[in-house]
Each structure stands twice: as C-alpha cells, then as structure tokens.
Amino acid sequence: MATKSNTKYTLQRRKVVHRILEGRGDAAVVTGIGNAVHDVASANDDPKNMYLAGIMGGAAMVAFGVALAQPKRRILVITGDGELLAGIGSLATIGVEQPKNLSIIVIDNQAYGATGNQHTHTGRGVDLVGIAAASGFKKTALITTNAELQAELPRIHNKPGPYLAVVKVMSKSSARIDAPKDGTYVSRRFRAAVTGESA
Amino acid sequence: MAARRKITLDRRKVVANILKDRGDLLLVTGLGAPTWDAASVEDNPNNFYLWGGMGGAVLTGLGLALAQPQRRVLVLTGDGEMLMGVGGLATVAVQKPSNLAIGILDNQRYGETGMQETHTEHGVDLAAMASGAGFQTTSTVYNAAELKTAIPMLYNTPGPVFVDVKVTAEDQPMILPPRDGPTLKHRFRENLLGSI
Amino acid sequence: MARKKKTDWSKDVFKVLKKADVQQIAYVPDAGHTSLIKMAIADNVIKPVSLTSEQEGVAVLSGAWLGGEAGALLMQSSGVGNVINMLGMANECRFPLLMLVTMRGEWGEFNPWQVPMGQATEGVLEASGVIVHRVDEPSEIAETVEAAAKLAFEGGRMVAVLIGQRVVGFKDWTK
Amino acid sequence: MVSKKSKTWHWSQDVHQLFKKIGIKQVAYVPDGGLAKLLERCQADKSMRSVVLTTEEEGVAQMAGAWLGGQRGVLLTQSGGVGNCINMLSMMQECRIPLLSLVSMRGEWGETFPWQVPMGQSTIPALEAAKVIVHHVDQAEKVPETVQAAAKLAFDANRAVAVVISQRISGSGSKG
Questions:
Q1: Is the dihedral of CA B118, B123, B128, B129 positive or negative?
Q2: What is the pLDDT of residues A142-189, one digit of tens each?
Q3: Is the pLDDT of residue A111 over 80?
Q4: What is the dihedral of CA A28, A89, D46, A161, to 10 degrees?
Q5: Domains and CATH numbers, chain B
Q6: How many domains, chain C?
Q7: Helix or strand holding residue A176 (H, E)
Q8: Cβ contacts (< 8 Å) between A187 and chain D: which residues?
Q9: Cα B90 from Cα A131, distance rounded (Å)
Q10: 8 Å CB contact of C31 and A116
Q11: What structural domains and CATH numbers belong to chain A?
Q12: Alpha carbons D128 and D122: distance in angstroms, whole number
C-alpha cells in the first residue's frame, strides 16, 4: 500500500506550543509522549506540567481525571496524533462527560516522530476533528495557520469545553529539551502545585 | 451529532433481513447478542462467532477481508464492543478493504452486563466517527425503509462500509451457537479453505 | 551504534517471514522494526497493516488465519501491555500467533518510564500462555524467528520473539 | 466496620459506605454484572462522579489524573478488562501513583463459558507481573474489610492495589 504524500504544512510545532502556553495563566498541562514533552518543556518547566514521558494513549484521560478533580482550573492536553490515536475511545468518554475545563491540543505532524517518522493514520485520511465532533465535542477546530491559531486562543484557554483542536505542523522534530523524567518527582510536584497539598 | 429519533427496529428482524440473501458472505460476529442474533437465523459454517475478545470483531473482519479479497466480509457487532476497539475504524479506513462491511446493532446498551447505557445513548455518533476515521460510505439506520436502502450497501457498495443500525433495547432469548473456539475455527477454515 | 547489524538481521528475518509464507504484517511503528516495516511495505505480496493500538493486531491476525493467511505482529515491548485481553481469544481458539517484540526498559535504557513495562513483558506474556523466545545476539535472531514461526504456524501456538534492547540499541537522543 | 449480615445484606452496601468514608470522588468503570450493585449505589450517590469508559485502560489514566488533581478514585472492572490495562499500569508503577481497583472475576470458580477462562486464569499473574498488589477474596463477608485494607495500601502507602473478587461471590457466569 502506498503512503500518500501530504499537503505541506508550514506551522512549526515548537512555536505553536509556545504561543499557546504564553497565555496559560494558572492552567495545568498534561503532555503526551515524545515531542510533546520536549515542546512543552522548552517553553518553561512549570510545576503544573505533567509530562507523560513514556505512555501511549493516556494523556487525554489523565487530563480528564485532573479536570474532574480541579473544576475551577483549565486543563490543557498537548499531545501528538499517534498518542491520541492509541487511546481514541477516550474522546467518546470525554464527549459523554462534557468536562468544561478541558482543552485538547493535538500537534499533528502526521508521523510517529519518536520512532522514525512513520506515517500515522492522520496522514492517510483520518480526521481527528471529525472523530472528536462525532464523539460529542461541541467545540473543535482545525488549525493550519498562525491567524487561525490566534483566533482559537480564547477557546483554548477560556471558553467552556470540552475542546479539541488539531494543529497541523511540519513533519519535523525539534531539538530535544529534557524535562524532568522521574515520574515520582513530576507527579508529586504537579499534585502539590495544583492542589496546594503535599502528597 | 445525529438528531434524536425514535428507535423501533427489532434486532432479530434486522439481522434476519440482512442475512436473508447472504449468498457466500463470510460473517464475523462480536461477542454477546450479535452472536445470538446471527445464530437465531441459522448456524452457518461461514459464520465466525467471537465469544470473547471484546473490541476485536472489526479487526478480525479486516484480517479476513485482506486474506479473502474475492469474498464479501460482514462484521455484525454491538455498540459497546465497537467502542472498546474504536481506533480500529481508523486502521480499517487506512487499509480501504473494498470487500469489508461493518454493521452495528446499536441498542445503546451493554447487553451482557445488565443493559447499562453506552456512549451512543449519550450522543456519540458511531457513523460520524467512522466517517471521521475515513470511511467513504456510512449510514445510520432508524427504520425499515432506511434498512432496506442500507442492506445493499452492506453487500455491494465498495468498502469499507459502515452502517449503524439503531435497534430497541429489548432483551431477546439467547440462541446459542457452538462456542468451542477450536471447533468454530476448524469449521470455518475447513469450509472456506478445504483444510484446517 | 549498531545500525549496520540492525539492517542485517532485519533482512534475514524478512526472508524467514517470506519463507514462512507470512502475508499480513501488522504493526505499531517502532524504531527497532523500521527496516522490517519498510520491507513489508515494499513487498508486493505482503499486506502491511498499521495499527492505532497493538490489540488490533491480535484480532487482525486472527482474521487473517481464519481466511487462510499467516501473519506477524511487530511491536515494542510496551505494546505487549495492550494485547493481554485480546490474547485470550487467540488462546481460546488456539490461533497461531507470531509476535516480534523489540525490547525497551532493560539493557541501557535511559527513559525510566519504559522500565516497568519492559520488566513486565516476559511475565505477562507467559501469564497469558504465550511461548517466549528471547534473543540477544543479532546473529541468532533469524533462526529464532524461524523456529518461532514453525512453532506458531505448524505447532498452532502463540509465540513471541523478544529482541533484546542490547540488539536494537540505545536510542541516540543527542541528535 | 462491617454491619452484621442480614439476608438482604450485600457486600456492595458496606463497600459503598467505605468509599464515602475515605472520600472516593471518581468512579471509573466498564459495566460488569458482578459489580452491578456496587455501581448502582455509586451512581445514585451525588458525592461521587461515575464515569463509564470505552475501555479499562482509560480508567487507569483517569485515576492517575484524579490523584494528580487531589481526588481519590476507584476503578471497577471485570477480569477481562485487566488485560486491557497492563501497559497503562506501568505509569502507576513508574510514578508510584495510588490505584485502587476492584476486579470482578470471570473464568474461574464454576465458569461455564470457555472463552472467559484464558483471561480469567491470566488475570492475577498478569497483575502481579505488572507489579500490582493483589488481594484475592472469595467470601462475600470479607469483601469490605479487604477493600478497606487495599484502600489503605493504595492511598496511604501509595501503591497500585487490586481487590480481585472471586466468581464464587458474584456467581456470574451462567451467561456470556
């Protein structure tokens, strides 16, 4: 089977993530595996970042659990298309539960960046925005330009969710920026920062 | 999301209708009621019933469709089973098997565990998910007229085809086909391939 | 590091899979399987099936075998943790199942998050009734896969070949 | 803690009360017959949020998020669902995040249904291989105290713990 060549996208993943995180306020951020970790860490290593550095398919539901526990705080998921696809049923669960404070940002380079840039399904006709809408997400967006990104920022940060945006970016990894990778450390640091309690 | 419409179709009648002129169709059924529905029509050696492996019916159908490109393959399964392996829709759409059709008997319930509501009861639209996954042909069926249009799609429209048939949540008597896995497997392969 | 070796064993393994008449190769991409996946895609006979989650692969290969074709599932060790329930079906029906698993979370692992699943891989496979062949020498991979393929397709069993991280190599994170 | 058992007593009463007492706020589940009564009690209780999942691994991830956000939760699953969680459980081990899980067994005591047996027999070894602490209980009266002990181990000692409730108690298995 041939892998189709894709439309060329011009947005740079790291700039997109930085732009989104500039306005995060007191939002908590849950990242997917791989590039998402590095993109978020390169903006700022915030204690309210939970880096899921080694698990596929869990970012949306980890964030959902936080969103239920912290209803007054915005929870952002920054993840990749492959990571989201590995747990795609989560969108239906979140669509049913309707957490208003949850925004999912999919940085879609249409490739498994961590393992050699193999094409993911999104490069071959799978429409994550459509799946999110079908799952009950009332607010969704496909972002391919800076202007569109700018226009979506209020929905990402403030408007009632659940919200999902797919940001199409160039299929290129950025320089690796290490985030703290000890899970017991980042999880306890995160929990203390968002709850004000120690574990 | 699909608008709320009245659900009137009886699952047994739907399945009987779908399988009435099945010809040499190969049928894979998901665990629970779809297996009994298929058995209520007849126990056919071209049926492979999943009695377990929740979330695996569609992908079992995909592997079979790829192996048997000249034969039509139909997966009949329930909404809960489909949801448990819903990423499989993306995998199927990428493969574009022209001989594979998927029919969901969507009673919006987990029938095996006490009729708890599934996500489809709360607005999740499986046909739209399939469409988002890349299926070119999808449909949601609520009544007999729509079913009549959908059945030829299951058999003849180039696949992958996805049809979500909304059925009532009434409990039906269990009609149990053979369930010994090795027996089912041998029977299916011997009938299809001439050897096990 | 072991780039040359990697290509070499992949070629030999691919020959073994062809000889075993494998016609469907289902995979979730992994760096260690890159060459094998490329060969599968380039091959005119083999149907490559890229998956969103590894459990789909067990189901696909069950269907493949019902339809008269042999297949192989390629994944990373973390993916083993996604297939345990679906293996129940392969076990109950005694479907042949050949899995090639590239290991993470062991030899020289740098990412702590990979360690728990890497250390659990062999245990959960055995708990699920899968016969496990482990190989840490590049020169022995092809013959191990050949033996595993026989045991799977002729012996009618679920067999996993675990390819040690020592073979696959450390990830080069410096570039 | 356990009230004396009348004829109408069901272990789910005491377990639900225990959940309230220890501050369980999120209940994630894939429906299961053996846990149905407990689920009904949790669903009727406004102090906890019940979340139905498409697959059990979502629930493990949700429990991680609940704890990260300062709440306690519980994952309710059938034994087959355990096989969907093994990879996600590695996150709980790596981060040492508490996990309380109740697993309703199939494929063991008096099972009449062959397809449930392989996963049922793999459930405990797979959990143990994934380094989850397993408490197996096969008498209804002992379920509440076992869940209580497991909750302590989970939330006070920060461990992943599964209470595996035998099919001997649920009696399920007559039907697929």
A1: negative
A2: 999 999 999 999 999 999 999 999 999 987 777 888 898 888 999 999
A3: no
A4: 50
A5: 11-193 (3.40.50.970)
A6: 1
A7: none
A8: 64, 67-68, 95-97
A9: 10
A10: yes
A11: 13-194 (3.40.50.970)
A12: 10
**Residue B177: closest CA among chain D residues belongs to which residue?**
D176
Strands (E), B55-160: 73-78, 100-106, 109-110, 116-117, 137-141
Is the CATH number 3.40.50.12780 carried by domain D11-170?
no
Q: What distance lies between CA D106 and its chain's CA centroid?
A: 13
Nearest one of B45, B100, B108, B42 to B76, comparing CA atoms: B100
Q: What is residue D1's predicted lDDT score, i.e. its pLDDT?
A: 46
Residues in chain A closer than 8 A to C10 (CB atoms): none
The whole domain housing C36 covers 3-114+134-168
pLDDT of residue D175: 42
- The CA-atom distances, in angstroms, between A160 and each of A70, A127, B69 are 14, 23, 47
Q: Give the pLDDT score at A65.
A: 93
C143: domain CATH number?
3.40.50.970
Number of H helices, E strands in chain B: 8, 8
User: pLDDT digits over C126-154, tens only?
Assistant: 999 999 999 999 999 999 999 999 999 99
The complex's ipTM? 0.83
Average pLDDT of adjacent 10-residue blocks, chain D of 176 residues: 70 98 95 91 96 92 93 95 94 93 94 90 96 96 97 95 95 53
Whether the per-residue pLDDT at C2 is higher than 50: the answer is no
CB of D140 closer than 8 Å to CB of B73: no
- Check if A86 contacts B (Cβ < 8 Å): yes
Interface residue B178 vs chain C (CB under 8 A): no
Chains that touch D (3 or more CB pairs under 8 A): A, B, C
**Domain range summary for chain D, segments of one domain joined by +:** 11-170
Low-confidence ranges of chain B (pLDDT < 50): 1-2
pLDDT band at C169 (very low <50, low <70, confident <90, very high): confident
Least CB-CB distance to A95: which of B95, B123, B131? B123
Q: What's the pLDDT score for residue A2?
A: 34
Adjacent-strand bridge partners of C98 = C72, C159
What residues of chain B lie within 8 A of the CB of C95, using their CB? Answer: 185
CB contact under 8 A, B132 and A1: no
Considering only CA atoms, which of A62, A115, C162 is closest in space to residue D91? A62
**Per DSSP, what are the bridge partners of residue B48?**
B28
DSSP-based three-state secondary structure for A75: strand
What's the confidence (pLDDT) of residue A113?
Answer: 65
| Residue A27 scores a pLDDT above 60 | yes
**3-class state of residue C6 by DSSP:** helix
Chain D residues with beta carbon closer than 8 angstroms to that of C80: 86-87
* CB burial string C35-59: b at 16+ within 10 A, e below: bbbebbbebeebbbbbbbbbbbbbb
Whether C132 contacts chain D with CB within 8 A? no
How far apart are alpha carbons A160 and A156 in whole angstroms? 9
Closest residue in chain A to residue C78, using alpha carbons only: A55
- N- to C-terminal Cα distance for chain D? 35
For residue A86, the chain B residue with the least C-alpha distance is B87
- Chain B residues closer than 8 Å to C89 by CB: 50, 52-53, 56, 181
